[in-house]
Amino acid sequence: MSGYGQDMSTAGSWFHPVQADPDAPIRLFLLPHAGSGAIIYRDWPQLLPPEISAQAVTLPGRHNRREEATFEDFEPLLDSLYEAVLDELDDDRPFAIFGHCLGAQLGFRVAVRLKEEGERQPLVLGMSGWSPVGFFKPTEEQSRMPDDEMLEWIKKLGSFPAEVYDNPDMLALVVPALRADLRVSAQYEDDGATVSCPLASYGGDSDPLQQDPDAMTHWAGRSPQYLGHRGFTGGHFYIDTHALAVTTDFSRHLRNHAAQTAH
């Protein structure tokens, strides 16, 4: 399978690649962190086994969708993403969702909505770099911090490649999308919602956004089939350096549960 670079020219599409591999028995939706898009999962197609066809999500206002207005409110964004996922599902092919940070927040609520609406459930839900309890929650004021403060903050998190910070054109794309996503995340209120599908969690052991050392343990109460937590060395963006380990572990869960549901 190829990476996502060649697909970024398709304007208006939520998913990259636009079409899932029709021969893959499992499809996987990948949701990125705040301010980013499908590009953060560029290495995953080569790391996943061929039976899993991954499609990464790009929200409006970035990459190929940069001409579109960004969402700045949580519920309208969730509504649009939910409809996009629902419209994309095959009649009978199993699917899974994996999200990092804001992507985990959105992915979790998509799964909650699917349960509430009586729709098919994800094979497995993968939650990375966020928990409904014990994680940093941005404020509306923080989303409006001056550019220099915003850049210092995201540099400390290591959320973008170093070359981005010295490229005014790239910053002009990244910063507005990040501001919008922070405003979206600031509106999230935990209501104790649960999902009915299996759930696995992942995180960096020294993530500065994890304010409670036991934050990831809260996932155990959000699914009747909690598959446990895998911690890795590194901070919030541990996922960049541990992509192989994360994809290997998550693929194992997908294979196991696909085999169970086939019987």
UniProtKB/TrEMBL annotation:
SUPFAM superfamilies: alpha/beta-Hydrolases. Residues 27-244 form the Thioesterase domain. One of its GO terms (biological process) is lipid biosynthetic process. InterPro entries: AB_hydrolase_fold, TEII, Thioesterase. Belongs to the thioesterase family. PANTHER family: S-ACYL FATTY ACID SYNTHASE THIOESTERASE, MEDIUM CHAIN, THIOESTERASE. This is Gramicidin S biosynthesis protein GrsT. It comes from Streptomyces leeuwenhoekii. The gene is sle_03320.
